[in-house]
Structures are given as C-alpha cells and as structure tokens.
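ok so dumb question maybe but i'm new to this and my supervisor (M.) told me to 'just get the structure for Large ribosomal subunit protein bL35' and walked off. so i did the thing. is this what she meant?? sequence i used:
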Amino acid sequence: MPKQKTHSGAKKRFKVTGSGKLMKQQANLRHNFEGKPSRRTRRLSQDQVLAKGDAKVAKKLLGL
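this is what came out, is it supposed to look like this??
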C-alpha cells in the first residue's frame, strides 16, 4: 500500500508543539492596520492553540 501524503495546505498552516498540540496563526492580521490598535495587532501576532475538534481533523490531514 502506498504511503499517505501530507495535506499541503495543512502543513503550511499548522505546526506541532513538543507536547503534540497544534498551533495556528490568528486571523485579522493581513491588512487595515491603521484601524486596529497596536495592542490588538500584537495580541493577534501570537500563535494560538487549535481547538480540540479542529485539531482532530488537522492531525488526520498531517498524518499524525
């Protein structure tokens, strides 16, 4: 049987921590920064742990 391929979209979007959790980048950090406070943009630039239900699907796509 052939090997399972990693989903290319998923491997670009998620990274796995040492403990096995999946991290993702937060939304709303692409444009319109003049209207957003600096405090908010700093908060959004931090990675966030993927929700449990989403992590289950993403792990399948990553082949974990």
